[in-house]
What does this fold into?
Amino acid sequence: MSHVRTFPEVQVDAFVRRQVLSENENLMVVSFSFEKDGEGALHSHPHIQSTYVESGAFTFSIDGEKFDVKAGDSFVIPSNAVHGCTCHETGRLVDTFTPRRDDFL
It folds into this structure.
């Protein structure tokens, strides 16, 4: 039995694509590919989120605090924190959510 499952890539908007990489009811890993000037609109969710910057350069906002990140950086976004980002250099974020984000399936 194979444990590998392939999920389709979803075009979120003109600048952002999303792909679930793996999931179960307690954990989900998702790739977000951003073109320069793409934005992740401010939002919140009950999931704890860990973000790893695989490539590119971004400005993030978490509960009003802004900070810049680049390839190799990572950070955690608490449950229900209002957050979003702006992409300054084309790149990819790898986000992990606990529990799983059913809205991405």
